[in-house]
Amino acid sequence: MISTKIGFQPHAPQPNMMQPTFRIGAVARIAGMPVATLRIWEQRYQAVRPITAASGHRLYSSADVERATLLRRLTAQGHAISLLAALETGQLREMMHASEVAITANRPRAQKQSPMRAVVVGQALARRLQRLIDRQPLGAAPQMVAVFDSLVEAAEAAKHSANPAVDLLLWQAASLQPNARHELRVAQDAWRAPAAAVVYRFSSAAGRAELARAGAAVLYEPADDDSLGQWLATLHRSETPTDEIVTAPDLTIPSAKTLTQQTILPPRFGDAALTQFAGLSSAMACECPSHLAELLLQVSYFETYSGECANRSAADEQLHAYLRQVAGTARMLFEKALEQVAIAEGLPLPLPRVPTASLL
């Protein structure tokens, strides 16, 4: 006769990692990705293979959830979903582990240093910094104390701050013109920041040189987040920012005999919303949404830059007015293209442009 101790169940059910219990919305939330992305990964690459219940809903197991999470994290590091989809889950775990080991080995000092406290001027840049931190926490990434749309707003807000003292003033400039140094210095002094750094899209040589002579680190804004993160790490490793000047590539608009004189509408989408949209679609199998958002930002910045040049130089007013008309026309076409691609991919459109300022 077999005796059984109280509380002991010889056949107690064990958790089954393969038992489908999750719906697609829950899996997407756990993995940290849009439902549309997960659906495309399934349909195009069979990266995750749920079962279809009698109700018609796709159901996922815990093993499926783990696989989706690994795929999302690895694609965020730049790996192609088309290659990852063919790998076993164990191989994905090994890749993730190797990546984490490499990151730790390459940032021995960053983990020991406390992050810089930074005021960020530029909503789109703030989104990029937050995306870097969320995707792959960096010990050298700045801690954002406040985010503003302009240097003037930043300087004014410092007057009402209980502790207007930070390590870095980080400014995202669509264009750099001579005398930009004055506004930067006013905001930097208001926040008592010992260092200032500037990322820009368009600039004259004189504008870059002026800021560099004033001691600011100057960088042509890179399209990829990793390059931006590496530059921020160099700022953190130095006691003061390096006077770095990266020359922008020549951006030449071909001449045209005629240009349709149409009304140029204001930009539909805000810079920060476009930056968020580019990051959202970077994990998609099709990267067209991300590329379109980046191109739209470039064209929009050039449109602003051309308008500022026309206002500053009477001699070149006609030329820059023409360039602004070209850029505005191109922006409107890219906005329409972005709308069409977003509809085709099932992605939400970026939010309309609305001036905002926020304290974190």
Structure write-up:
The protein is of the alpha/beta class and 360 residues long. It has 13 helices and 9 strands. It has 3 domains: 22-106, Multidrug-efflux Transporter Regulator, Chain: A, Domain 2 (Orthogonal Bundle), CATH 1.10.1660.10; 117-249, Response regulator (Rossmann fold, 3-Layer(aba) Sandwich); 271-354. The chain has helices spanning 24-31, 35-45, 62-76, 81-84, 89-106, 123-135, 151-158, 180-190, 205-213, 225-237, 271-281, 288-312, 317-345; strands at 22-23, 51-52, 58-60, 117-121, 143-148, 168-176, 195-203, 217-220, 358-359. The strands form 2 sheets. Strands 8-7-6-4-5-9 form a 6-stranded mixed β-sheet. It has a 3-stranded antiparallel β-sheet with strand order 1-3-2.
Keywords:
single chain; 360 residues; alpha/beta; Multidrug-efflux Transporter Regulator, Chain: A, Domain 2; Rossmann fold; 3 domains; six-stranded mixed sheet; disordered N terminus; disordered C terminus
In brief:
This protein is an alpha/beta fold.
Topology, pairings included?
Layout: E1 22-23, H1 24-31, H2 35-45, E2 51-52, E3 58-60, H3 62-76, H4 81-84, H5 89-106, E4 117-121, H6 123-135, E5 143-148, H7 151-158, E6 168-176, H8 180-190, E7 195-203, H9 205-213, E8 217-220, H10 225-237, H11 271-281, H12 288-312, H13 317-345, E9 358-359
Parallel strand pairs: 4-5, 4-6, 6-7, 7-8
Antiparallel strand pairs: 1-3, 2-3, 5-9
